[in-house]
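Team,

Forwarding the record for the chain on the shared tracking sheet. I've put the sequence and predicted structure together so nobody has to dig through attachments.
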Amino acid sequence: MSRHEPFTFYEFFAGGGMARTGLGPGWTCLFANDFDPAKAAAYAANFGDDHLRVGDVWDLDAADLPGRADLAWASSPCQDLSLAGARRGLSGRRSSAFWGFWNLIEALDAQGRAPRAIGVENVTGLLTSRGGEDFTALCAALAERGYRFGALQADAADFLPQSRPRLFVLAVREPPPAGFLEPLAGPHPPGMQKAFDALTPELKAKWLWWRLPHAVGRNADLADLLEPDDAVAWLPVKRTAALLALMAPAHRRKLDAARAEGGRRVGALFRRMRLEGGRRVQRAEVRFDGVAGCLRTPSGGSSRQFIVVAEKGEVRARLLTGREAARLMGLPDDYRLPRSATAALHLAGDGVAAPVVRHLAAHLLEPLLAAPAEAAAA
């Protein structure tokens, strides 16, 4: 790229700054916002607070945002996927916070300061929530402000030992060169194709099938990211037995096979509610494929992830630590986590995997934003 100065960005729903971490040193943050004081404190501890505004996105206006950013990134809340419908931030309060963000983009556009690119990260369920109305509403908002857009699905498991599929909607103002696009009739993920097919002809005309290279592949398993055994607190024998007693037969067989191997096998375990015989039953479900389950916020006991180690015929279990969760999101060990384990797990479980953002930035965002400068210099 011929461009030498850093790219600039606004980071909304910033959490602990995982999108910023993924974008890397070639980017300068002009403004960051999050509603949660604990997450904002972690953000400030790692990146400073001179550009950080803590509070509801609905309380911001365009005057709070300096300059014109190359990118506006929004890892918008996914607890309630209510993007369609009322835009007052009242019903479906958390996910409708997206419209608080979008009101700012509209205000910036009215001032001639709309970001050149928009990045929205959410769960893959956004494609189908409310029968596809939410995804259509997002696409319509982008189109109304002159953006062309497309969506990508990426799983953190291609980069890190955590299963974390997410949807990324990328929109741009400037027409992208053909090399960034897949053929319209190419093989696309079924869910994405279905979402595209449900759009109006006007929105389909604004759609871009982004071309993103496959990830090279992760080079670490779950066991590689864990703390030493003597540095963590293991569950008492009786509590471990009670946890394992929640396993259905299929998962008990997985555990028995790992224990029978005799060597050291590391697994990840979640407690989940399952419907069996017409009633809801709590079950412990384990995996020994070297990948953790998708991190979630520790809003209840069942959402905490456990580490299970089968070794020399014995089984031990413990809770995942905050530092381990941070590693599973791609945060370096010098990242300053909240002191509370619950706060650290909440920060990690509510974030975006940093290496996925880096992959998007390296292969799409940066070359797309640099393309006009390169064309002008040619």
